[in-house]
Design brief:
Strand order of the largest sheet: 1-2-3-4
Largest sheet: 4 strands, antiparallel
Number of helices: 27
Strand content: under 5%
Shape: flat
Helix content: 55-70%
Length: 570
């Protein structure tokens, strides 16, 4: 993970210390962590969604705050990064070792608890009145608490919480839904005093209102999700207390499959059903599925959403659908396009029914209407004919797929096919090399069409380093393949690696952006780690670093990164 020192260099001292202050105040909530992305919510004037994207030693950031529109790294990105560093060092529990020994929060809490009730009430009222949004929210709470609410009055509060406005700025959308969420929570709490049926009517009134809002509010930031979550949670709870018998509840759930509200609960999975209720639900679902009539010719079928929905539920939950024959019958009735037929073919293979798999493969061939669909069909055909023991036929199809569009990606696929089929010609690599060389010579690269360098990737992946060097010395190449070649060739052809690195960095550093600086220094560090420890090589690499520093001495952020990694050269 990135160090604090590197973070200072990337963000700048001013932004770093602002972010550190946010971090020390505990205003960061880590949400998700993976090898490619770390996300969190940082509280400021609003709640900002922030993310870090680690990529082999270099880092990119994103944030929904206004400052990020003109900064590569904002204070919220710094705060999230520091929180993640702390979390990584101390396990899942966040322990801020940078905080002073005393706790300002505890001191303030103790003081507030010691104040007389009258004084607290006065201070709270004053604070509420100073913020119009807090004022409105507390006024709604007071209104709900002081009056007996009926369905009509609560609907009016929903309208007030979700007014019809044209909103296109993300900050205003965030403000709109943040304020609405608290009012909706209060209304839903008050709605528990209604009859179960009226409570249900109110929730659907909320869904209808949201549908109208979405036509006028651009919420690309996803701030509406909080409101939707609260409504969906309330719906599941309300359904559980309805005065319905088992069949009535099952019928309501079946009918609710037709609703097309955004972020509606997943039926039946989000609803806590008893065994009897689930059995009744599946029985109705099966009856309706059986009543749908479909054409025997799949090519003439139109995709039926209702049929698909009910069929998938049966496949997932119906006990007898766990058996191959029953599941196959459902899948066949649901099929309406090429991918469905190919999926059925693979399903048959997975259940050791190769002949039926071939039948569905042939059925699928009739559904091909676009060039890319032929590739999907070929992939499945290789699986089927391999399972049937027709090795030569399967290999011929795999090779044909490669020769239609030769590339490094296609070569990787071909290698997987050789493993699947269990067959590999003696001269395979020579034939692949010939195809890739032919592609590399087909078109002259220009600024719209970068040079095809798949042959270099092939050579590098196959450890044919001398051929990679020969090709790169005679042809143009983009920065991606040059930097990859430089890193790969460093232990074997150090002089060439340094040369390719120079060519790559001259392209990367054309743009004065933080991410380019990080990428350039990351490439230099990787090459430095792989170069042999020889005097002449060390001198050549030092010359490269010094040359980059001299050419970019007016770029302070790049110079900071260079000094942090190569102080001994500068």
């Amino acid at each position: 993970m990135i160090s604090e020192q590197e973070l200072v260099l990337i963000a700048g001292a001013s932004t770093f210390f602002k972010g550190k202050n946010i971090y020390q105040k505990g205003k960061v909530q880590l949400q998700a962590q993976s090898a490619n992305e770390i996300t969190g919510l940082v509280s400021g004037s609003y709640d900002y969604r922030t993310a870090i994207y680690p990529d082999s030693g270099s880092y990119a950031f994103s944030c929904t705050c206004p400052a990020f529109e003109y900064q590569e790294v904002c204070k919220h990105c710094v705060a999230l990064t520091l929180t993640y560093i702390d979390s990584s060092q101390n396990g899942e529990v966040h322990t801020n070792t940078n905080k002073p020994s005393f706790s300002p929060e505890n001191t303030l809490k103790s003081y507030i608890e010691s104040l007389p009730t009258e004084k607290l009430h006065s201070a709270l009222y004053k604070l509420i009145c100073e913020d119009k949004y807090q004022y409105n929210q507390w006024l709604n709470k007071a209104h709900l608490a002081s009056n007996e609410q009926d369905l009509k009055s609560l609907k009016k509060l929903v309208t007030k919480a979700l007014p019809l406005k044209d909103i296109w700025e993300y900050r205003k959308a965030a403000e709109y839904f943040t304020n609405a969420e608290q009012i909706i929570i209060d209304v839903l709490e008050s709605a528990k005093k209604l009859s179960p049926l009226d409570e249900l009517k109110l929730i659907f009134h909320m869904y209808d209102r949201l549908e109208k809002i979405f036509e006028r509010v651009d919420d690309s930031g996803g701030y509406r999700f909080g409101v939707q979550y609260q409504i969906s949670l309330a719906l599941c709870s309300t359904i559980s207390i309805q005065e319905w018998n088992t069949n009535q509840k099952a019928k309501w759930l079946i009918d609710a499959l037709e609703y097309e509200y955004d972020s509606f609960p997943d039926i039946p999975y989000d609803f806590q059903l008893s065994e009897a209720e689930m059995s009744a639900f599946l029985s109705i679902c099966q009856t309706q599925f059986d009543q749908y009539e479909v054409c025997s010719d799949i090519a003439k079928r139109e995709r039926n959403y209702d049929l698909q929905t009910r069929g998938q539920i049966l496949l997932n939950l119906l006990p007898q659908a766990k058996e191959y024959e029953a599941a196959l019958k459902i899948k066949v009735k649901m099929a309406s396009e090429l991918n469905d037929a190919l999926s059925i073919s693979q399903f048959c293979l997975d259940n050791d029914d190769e002949l039926t798999a071939e039948d569905w493969l042939l059925n699928a061939k009739k559904l091909i209407s676009k060039p890319h669909q032929k590739n999907n069909w070929n992939e499945q055909a290789i699986n089927v004919y391999t399972a049937l023991g027709e090795t030569e036929r399967a290999w011929h199809m795999a090779w044909q797929m490669f020769t239609e569009r030769p590339s490094q990606h296609a070569w990787q696929k071909l290698q997987k096919h050789t493993e699947t089929i269990g067959y590999k010609p003696d001269n395979l690599k020579l034939d692949v090399e010939a195809q890739l060389l032919q592609v590399s010579k087909k078109e002259e690269p220009n600024w719209l069409r970068p040079p095809n360098t798949d042959i270099v990737d092939f050579y590098l992946s196959d450890n044919q380093f001398d051929k990679a060097v020969d090709w790169l010395d005679k042809n143009k190449a983009g920065e991606h393949v040059l930097k990859e070649a430089a890193v790969c060739l460093a232990p074997h052809f150090p002089d060439k690696a340094i040369n390719y690195c120079t060519r790559a960095l001259s392209i990367i550093l054309r743009h004065a952006e933080s991410k380019n600086y990080q990428e350039a220094v990351s490439v230099l560090k990787k090459i430095d780690d792989r170069l042999p420890d020889e005097q002449q090589v060390n001198q050549s690499f030092e010359k490269l670093v010094r040359g980059i520093a001299n050419e970019n001495c007016r770029r302070p952020n790049l110079m900071k990164l260079l000094r942090s990694q190569f102080t001994h050269y500068l």
